[in-house]
Enoyl reductase (ER) domain-containing protein (Microlunatus sagamiharensis), 334 residues
Amino acid sequence: MPSSTQVQLVRRPRGWPTEEDFRTVSVELGDLAPGQVRVRNEFLSVDPYMRGRMNDGPSYAPPYALGETMTGAAVGRVEESTSDELPVGALVLHGLGWRDVTQADASAFRRVEEIPGGPSSLHLGLFGMPGLTAYAGLTAVAGLREGERVFVSGAAGAVGTAAGQIARLLGARTVIGSAGSAEKVALLTSRYGYDVALNYKEAPIREQLRAAAPEGIDVFFDNVGGDHLEAALDVLNPNGRAAVCGSISAYNDSAPKPGPDNLSRIVTRTLTLRGFLVGQHPDLADEYREAVTRWFAAGELAYDETVVDGVENAVTAFLSMLRGGNTGKMVVRV
């Protein structure tokens, strides 16, 4: 009887999650029913949004159930099939992560192509949800125009590394990014197309951004919130736009923090702040796939991955990602 190693949530975190909030179990899998496939995952994704699903409260995605295996993006290969649609060996993308082997109806999986010159994990990063998030935020949400100045918070993460490069390819005049270490800051300018990179741990980001953007910024792509949002509000030019993608600085707070002290600038500078979810933009998926394939083949996009081995270490990878331990996409290699 085939089995699957799976990670379950057993306790709602209060503040920062700990290893004790999870358990790893072995689950026996039955025989395949007609039209089903069994997939051995190659890579699992751990993402910031998963922290919100560990809370029992209203959000855009339902909370994880206690005592049940969590879900998330994964890419793997079909190793057994009773479906004509997905033969053995097919590479598939799906939402049944946090486990090494999964099986379900073939409709739960989407066949994807091999990426020339790249690993299958790129379907979880640059070619997947983080890349599309960056593209949708810059184009559909912020309406980036050629010649504009852009600031990206959390610029060394999966979305941020994509956003900086895509902004450059779309014609941004200046791209500024923030990160939390000297090594990451160096990568932003040497590898990811950023003109200026700021280490928010060295000095208040509000002071650094004001000095780095004497002519202001037109677009803010926000992954962090908190002091980064406050800093951006200080320097957004009249009619500036903010695409608010995430607020990782607050995901593990046990109590609300005071908001920005300069919200009045939204009125006085006629700014637009718009939150968005990548799931609201399926219409851009084909457009982005064509663009990212072209850019990657031409050598115009770089990527980094932080890879943790073993599904039994998925929680460790997740916790590290929340604390900024990744450069580029954090993935678990199964």
Observations:
- The chain has a mean pLDDT of 97.
- The chain has two domains: 3-125+304-333, 129-280.
- The first helix runs from residue 49 to 53.
